[in-house]
Design a protein that fits this description.
The chain is of the alpha+beta class. It contains twelve helices and 16 strands. Strands 10-11-6-2-1-12 form a six-stranded mixed β-sheet, with helices on both faces.
């Protein structure tokens, strides 16, 4: 019989514990530790920063405080995201010797169950670009779908870690307000793209599905995809002690400012696979032009332009559609 996978079904818990538990399991993992899947939801909303991101560049601390959103930094990559009780987290922690050697192989193996779960709910879902789960695209990938999960992964100590969520609903407004942006045009394009490119079960299904029902399907699909029984377990005393340590470390000033370089507001923001918002400035003729772009695969889909001195740039912005983003200055110059 294959060795069982330990299941920690924690339900709705304090927001910080949804991060400290899986970090603790990863940091204490050895070859003798059980491979573990954690299923949980945060009882309170919060913001989670990717390991490589600079807090001051990505999030507006004052806006986050006004929204009542605490901030934590995780040890795996990806972008900053808004998390709350309308999301079911799955956190997979496997010893690195018991998963494929390649990053793509790890994602394919550990994301097979979430993909199968969403399909069981009646959604047309595909795994794209290693770790993007999309709804509604075509099978060959020519037509992009909508992102329905936030997924990250990496190596922490001896553990291979893949974490993700199933979005029952999402607070688009809170996420858009929390960003630190170079201009309100940038925020507007980002907010519009977020609503268009990121979807939820509430938007995709004809009727609500109870989270407990989705969790039951997810557990079944993990066992089926991995070919191993998934059995309820408990934390070890060592893991419990490490959780208490990480409750403090993950929100410490030193950890939150780990990547601090005195950054200005971000000038690029990933929304979904291939879709980014970019900001740029250039001196064109006698104008200082500030631009915000929505870009898909490096091609401009929408532009907002403003300048000093002021000018009506709407026609120029519209004519940039379909242009490579690196060629935007030339495109504007041609229209003056």
């Amino acid at each position: 019989m294959p060795s069982p996978i330990r299941l920690l079904s924690l339900g709705a818990i304090h927001w910080l514990r949804t991060q400290s538990v899986y970090h603790a399991l990863a940091e204490t993992m050895t070859a003798g530790s059980p491979d573990t899947i954690v299923l949980t939801r945060p009882a309170q909303p919060y913001l989670c920063l990717g390991y490589h991101q600079e807090l001051e560049a990505v999030l507006d601390r004052a806006a986050c405080a006004a929204l009542g959103l605490p901030i934590v930094r995780r040890r795996v990559g990806g972008g900053a995201t808004y998390l709350d009780s309308d999301q079911l987290f799955y956190q997979c922690l496997f010893h690195h010797t018991r998963v494929p050697a390649t990053v793509s192989g790890v994602y394919a193996q550990l994301l097979a169950a979430p993909v199968a779960t969403l399909r069981a709910l009646g959604l047309s879902v595909e795994l794209r670009g290693e770790n993007e789960i999309e709804v509604g695209g075509d099978r060959d990938g020519h037509r992009a779908g909508k992102r329905i999960a936030g997924i990250g992964g990496g190596r922490i100590g001896e553990a291979a870690v893949v974490v993700g969520n199933i979005l029952f609903d999402f607070d688009y407004e809170a996420m858009a307000r929390a960003w630190r942006v170079p201009s309100e045009s940038f925020r507007r394009l980002a907010a519009e793209a977020l609503r268009e490119c990121v979807t939820t079960l509430r938007r995709e299904l004809p009727r609500p599905v109870p989270p407990d029902d989705v969790q039951a399907v997810l557990i079944y699909e993990f066992a089926r995809a991995l070919g191993r029984p998934v059995k309820p377990g408990e934390l070890t005393p060592q893991e419990a002690r490490k959780i208490g340590e990480l409750d403090r470390r993950l929100v410490s000033t030193k950890w939150l400012n780990l990547q601090a370089n005195g950054a200005k507001p971000m000038t690029a923001l990933k929304i979904s696979r291939g879709v980014f918002i970019h900001a740029a400035e250039a001196k064109i003729a006698n104008y200082k032009v500030r631009a915000a772009f929505r870009v898909r695969d490096d091609v401009i889909e929408r532009t907002m332009l403003e300048s000093e001195p002021e000018r009506d740039w709407r026609e120029a912005a519209e004519n940039l559609r379909g242009t490579k983003v690196r060629e935007w200055v030339r495109g504007v110059e041609a229209q003056i």
